[in-house]
Known about the structure:
By secondary structure, the protein is of the alpha/beta class. It has a single domain (2-217), classed as Rossmann fold (3-Layer(aba) Sandwich), CATH 3.40.50.300. It contains nine helices and eight strands. The protein has a five-stranded parallel beta sheet with strand order 2-3-1-4-8, with helices on both faces. A three-stranded antiparallel beta sheet has the order 6-5-7. A hairpin with a 7-residue loop joins strand 5 (127-130) and strand 6. The longest helix has 15 residues, at 167-181. It is globular and about 45 Å long. The N and C termini lie close together (8 Å). The mean pLDDT is 94.
Amino acid sequence: MIIIMLGAPATGKGTVASILSESFSIPQISTGDMFREQIKQGTELGKLADSYMSKGNLVPDEVTIKIIEERLQQNDTKNGAILDGFPRTIKQAEELDKILTSHNKQVDLVIDLVSSEEEIIERMANRRVCSNQNCKAVFNTVLNPPKQEGICDKCGSDLIKRKDDNVETIKNRLSTYEQNTSPLVDYYKQKGILRVEEVSQKKGRMGIDVAKDIERTCKW
Ligand code: AMP
């Protein structure tokens, strides 16, 4: 089964994806994580991606589609995958449909996480991620703090703030989302596979609650 996580930055896509990845035993594929790994390794792709990511812009479609196409050829995706942060443009969605068709697959479910701008900005400011690329646990200094400040509960590595979680970049990432990614809501609504879920600290409904509901109602 192929699940897509839609939603603006810091709505909890990664949190929901990682829970569902475990319960459905399919890999979580985050294009953002793939680019960050390339940046860390100092590759040409990493340098290119960083020049867009550091400003809060999207990495060009042809580059992003190529890395997803290659990733979906790997054997661990034979039973499906959870795409976290891909597609982000209509062009990417159309190309994904073509890639999946060639593998006799299709998108089964699209989870659109919706949150107020105020809460999104707060969550981005307080987000801390594990510096260990094999762990990638995500914390929030207010909502979900680690037991020991600055240290990952799961693997003991240092927690860091993402380079693009800063005030200037955040605003651009939100407008990039509105302009390029939000049209995907209608794209998938028309296909009848969209599930809209509100994420709100004020309403006591966070990513973990959404994931539990999906686990309960989607039995594959
Ligand atoms: P994320 O970790 O999903 O928040 O992504 C971080 C950044 O990586 C985004 O702001 C983009 O610059 C880049 N990125 C991730 N996924 C994509 C994508 N599907 N298309 C273009 N750029 C992407």
